[in-house]
Amino acid sequence: MTVKVKARISETGQLVSAANNDDWALVHPSTGRGPDMYCPDSDDRCRSKLIAVEKQNKTKGTVTRFFRFPKNSRRCTHAEVEHGVEVRSTPTASGGESDEHLWLKQFVLDVAQRCGYAAELEHSLPGVRADVWVPGATRARVEVQRVPTDIPTRTGDYPDVVWLLRETAITQSTKKYLFGSPCVQVRISKKLARTTETILIPGRPWEGDTEVEISASATVLHLRHGPHVVPGEKFFETHPIPLEKFLRQVWSGERVWYPRGTAHSFAGWVLATEYERYQQWLKAQQDIQHALRAVNAAIDERADRPARPDPAPAHPGPAPSQPAPAPTPTTPSDPATLAARHPAADKGNLTQTAQSALVMQQPEPDWMQWIDLQLSPDVPNGWWKRLKKRLRVGRRQ
Ligand SMILES: [Zn+2]
Known about the structure:
alpha+beta, 3 domains, eight-stranded mixed beta sheet, six-stranded antiparallel beta sheet, 11 helices, 18 strands, 30% helix, binds zinc ion
């Protein structure tokens, strides 16, 4: 029998080997279905499908791993070998968990215990089992994920969770979960000193790498630095922080997960103090918009008034109850247009128009003082300049 011992993952093009334990855990998971795969040949762009299989050799206590074609599918002879890869059969309590998964769970447990939590591994909850359980913490359930999975389904009945996703869990079809569910990407890297530079390469501490950097990335949101945010730009940006720091902040409630569209265009983790500043900034933007609308409305009202002074503004007091004054021949507004702009005119009630006109006759409109009082360091100068320019233009008319 000829078989293959290498394959390529359809979605990522990643080359996987039956001899590599981590690769095998990825393509032959103990539960659920592995990713779609095809022939490892890349020269001929062969797309023959492959599946990962294990054959138990009970008497020898070994397992043979190899890739074969699904039944009735296209076959090819690329990269064929005589035998699969034979490994020792090592059934453990953790089933098919890879060394990487076990290592990362232990890392999270160690951090939790250093924080003083009575944390434990594999804790049973209603309907689910937490990889790491951190009682008393916000997001007490921690899940480590290194193969693609349906995060919302797996979240199940216990949504107070933080998902730690490895790169291998994030594919075209699952990255929506990273940016839509309480997930963070975990990167593990180590420095490689070369003659002229130091570069970062993936670290594998579970295989003995030391001095690795473990970071939380992709959905860790920070206030933007530098000049103040201008309208249309994002208030937050994302950059990595050490995973330990991230977990401490999340468990203590300092860093909070906000769903898609609340703090940022995608879901992410924001310091509560920074979210508060964002809310204040939003409020300031709304106040500016409100002021602009009030100003524009006042300017429009004045433009609509007949060229001759209306007698009503000279006598502020009880609302005039007489019918709407007929427009003078010189005004471009015909009665129909006026009525459309001021539905109240239909009912013979011009109270609102008259009051707005009064406001505009004051030498220094109140809202100019209001604007000056509202100056806040969180609002860029450009905004005020443009707003004030708009107001001056309006007043000259
Ligand atoms: Zn092939």
